[in-house]
Structure formats: structure tokens, C-alpha cells
Specification:
402 residues, alpha/beta, eight-stranded parallel β-barrel, 25% strand, globular
Length: 402
């Protein structure tokens, strides 16, 4: 449940993403247990969480006091952010790289991972005058074990039509010269049991090449900090693979780093009648919570009910059922339908839960809507200590358009 201080308009602006460094620290402490028990190195997946103002809580580098060894990036700019703000090891993967991107990556990345045989062979065989690599970089290949464990097709890296990773039928000995590691990312919001099944498929299909590499990256999608996650099974599995192949093991969780560590504060602007009551908010699903439409899913939302904080229920379970809609002109800009203890009123605060992951990195300025402010705080009981605050305005909107 969010702290009561989030509902105080004089203390917290709206709309705003609010990140609790205490909860971040608790999450990475769990991840550090995995590192200590297995010798694996855990990297932050920047595609899920990139709030660099909190990196000192996560990273052991750049003066930080966290346990993580670096980041994984999906672009040159994410890699640059990792190098400049996080430090440590910078691993970069993209479904396809341009030559210019690869040249830039050699200034910032330690590991560069290729998605297809043809991309790797073109880069490997290019004349040195074309490549111009400046730094020592370890090269890897992403493999596809063809083992689906993800329920939502759009997020399944191993779906039958997936373009991510090299299938065993397309892998050959000719690819291995110059390659020092293999990367497999097949999970999304999964437990350790799913990882075990994926790695069984990896051994079944790629056993021939596993002894030839010095590092193995098992990607992201591991919900390690979820309460019901089987940490012992994960540690046994990683230790067994390290002992069997003598390779450095990497994990790249994103959601597990910032799970339940942030909220999105919103305010009701108006309540009107349609087929059911509709509450208009100062946030937008399409601009500020795009996974609500893309996944899709209905996020938990809390409100004040008398002296206590209450989580809204499913439609019809409480006296007042209401649809929450966003501020953009998109007809489908709908967060969801909920029921509350009493009718919502203009000016009332609502707080959406678990909004540190993905929502912040996917925000847009569609319709010219301003991005929510970002607050880094430390919460203790119901008190909130605001450590940093950043607001966005017109220059942020105009600057990206020319």
C-alpha cells in the first residue's frame, strides 16, 4: 500500500512518478544474495528501468553503494547512459545494428551481442578500416532455444514467429571464431522453474557450443524479487551451470530491480456520466502507462477512504463503479474500470501502484501532454522525505520535434 504522504497535494505534485530508494535497496539486496551464492553477475536492464537519479542505490561503481555489476542496453544511447551514469560492465544487444552504431558502441560497451549470423559475419569479416574498433570488446551471439514460457505473445521471445535469437538449425561452427559468449533471453515475468525448462532446451539444442564460451548471459524476465519466487532453485541452477561449463554467468533483470518501488500519482479532474460514471485524470494510459494498453493489464490503484488508504476493487464489488480515463484525445485512453467506497470527486488523489518499471521508460508526449514529474524519495512509515525532484515542461516537448 502506498504511504499516506503521496495523497498530500502540498507535498507531492500531480502527475508524478515517485520512486522509493528504500524499496530499490531492498530489491537489489535480494539480487545480491544470488550473486553471493552463485558467483553470477547481475546487470540492470535499462529497457525496464532507467531512472539514473537512483543509480547510486543500485551500482557498485561511480561512487554508488549498490551491488550490481553494470547494465544491459538495447541501443547506443542506453549504453552511453550506462557508461556515464552507472559504470561497470556495459552489455549491448539489438536485433540489428548499423555500422555507425557498432563504431559508437566500441567507445562505451564491453560486450556486444549479435542477433543473426549474417550481421555477425558481416561485422567480423569487415576490413579493419571499416570497423575501426577502438576498445577491446567481447562479442556474443543471441540464441533462441525455441521454448515458450511467456503467456503474452507480444512479449514472448521464443514464439514461433519470433525474430529474436538464432535457432539451432541456423547455428554452425563457422560462427564461433571471435565469439566468447552466448546470450539467451526467453522469459518475461517468470519464475525459476521456467528458467530451468529454458536452460534444458538450451542444452538440448546447443550443447555442442556451450563448452567453447567463457560467459553465458541468461537475459532478463526473472521475477527474482517477487515474494513467491524460488530463490533456492535459481541459485542451484546457476551454480550447476557455472560448475558444468566454467563460464561466467550473467543475469539481466529489469522488473526485479524496481518491482513495487514506485508509484504514479494522479488527480481526478472531472467526473461525468456515460454508460457508467467516468473519471477524467491528469494522467494518460497511452502517454504515461502504455503497457496498460499494450499488455494489456489493469493496474492497482489506491485512494483515501476516510482515515485509511484503500485499494480499489473490481467493478461491482464496492458501492461506486467508475471508469478511469486519460487526458489524451485517444478514444481508447482508458486505464480501467474499478469500484470505490464512494463516488470520486474532482481534486481527489489516486495513486497507481508498481509504476517504476516500464511506464517511466515508455512515456510519450502525444497530444503535447507533459510528462509526469519524477521524484526520488525515501519513505518511512507514512512519512516521505523528498530527495530529488525533476519537472518537465514545454522545452522537453518541443526539443524532440525539431
Amino acid at each position: 500500500m502506498p504511504p499516506a504522504g503521496l495523497f498530500e497535494a502540498a507535498h507531492i505534485p500531480s502527475p508524478a512518478f515517485v520512486i522509493d530508494v528504500g524499496r530499490l535497496a531492498a530489491n537489489v539486496a535480494v539480487l545480491d544474495q544470488v550473486q553471493q551464492r552463485t558467483g553470477a553477475k547481475v546487470l540492470l536492464a535499462l529497457k525496464s528501468y532507467s531512472c539514473w537519479r537512483t543509480f547510486d542505490t543500485l551500482s557498485r561503481f561511480r561512487g554508488g553503494h549498490g551491488p550490481l555489476w553494470g547494465v544491459c542496453a538495447s541501443s547506443v544511447d542506453e549504453a552511453r547512459l550506462g557508461r556515464g551514469r552507472f559504470g561497470g560492465e556495459i552489455h549491448a544487444f539489438s536485433p540489428a545494428w548499423t555500422l555507425q552504431e557498432l563504431r559508437e558502441l566500441h567507445n562505451v560497451a564491453d560486450h556486444v551481442i549479435f542477433n543473426t549470423p549474417s550481421q555477425w559475419l558481416r561485422w567480423r569479416d569487415a576490413p579493419k578500416a571499416v570497423r575501426r574498433p577502438r576498445n577491446k570488446v567481447a562479442y556474443g551471439l543471441r540464441i533462441n532455444p525455441e521454448r515458450s514460457e511467456v503467456a503474452t505473445p507480444i512479449y514472448d521471445p521464443c514464439s514461433p514467429t519470433s525474430h529474436l535469437g538464432i535457432r539451432a538449425k541456423d547455428f554452425s561452427d563457422d560462427l564461433m571464431p571471435g565469439i566468447t559468449g552466448l546470450h539467451v533471453h526467453a522469459l518475461c515475468e517468470n519464475g525459476a522453474d521456467a528458467l530451468v525448462r529454458v536452460l534444458d532446451a538450451v542444452e538440448e539444442r546447443f550443447a555442442r557450443w556451450l563448452p567453447q564460451v567463457s560467459w553465458l548471459n541468461f537475459g532478463g524476465g526473472h521475477h527474482i524479487t517477487r515474494e513467491d519466487y524460488d530463490l533456492d532453485l535459481l541459485c542451484r541452477t546457476l551454480t550447476a551451470w557455472r560448475n558444468r561449463y566454467g563460464a561466467q554467468i550473467y543475469l539481466e533483470p529489469g522488473e526485479a530491480v524496481a518491482m513495487n518501488a514506485g508509484w504514479l500519482v494522479a488527480t481526478v479532474l472531472d467526473v461525468s456520466a456515460s454508460d457508467i460514471p467516468v473519471a477524467f485524470l491528469d494522467v494518460s494510459a497511452t502517454c504515461h502507462m502504455p503497457d496498460v494498453l499494450e499488455m494489456p493489464y489493469t493496474p492497482s490503484v489506491c485512494h483515501e477512504s476516510g482515515p485509511s488508504i484503500t485499494r480499489a476493487a473490481a467493478p461491482g464489488e464496492r458501492p461506486f463503479t467508475c471508469r478511469l480515463v486519460g487526458k489524451s484525445c485517444l478514444a481508447g485512453d482508458v486505464v480501467g474500470t474499478y469500484s470505490f467506497d464512494a463516488p470520486l470527486k474532482p481534486g481527489q488523489r489516486l495513486v497507481f501502484e508498481d509504476m517504476a518499471i516500464y511506464s517511466m521508460v515508455k512515456t510519450t508526449t502525444f497530444n503535447g501532454l507533459r510528462l509526469p514529474a519524477i521524484l526520488v524519495v525515501h519513505c518511512k512509515d507514512d512519512a516521505i522525505d523528498v530527495l530529488q525532484e525533476h519537472a518537465f515542461g514545454y522545452t522537453d516537448f518541443a526539443g524532440r520535434l525539431g
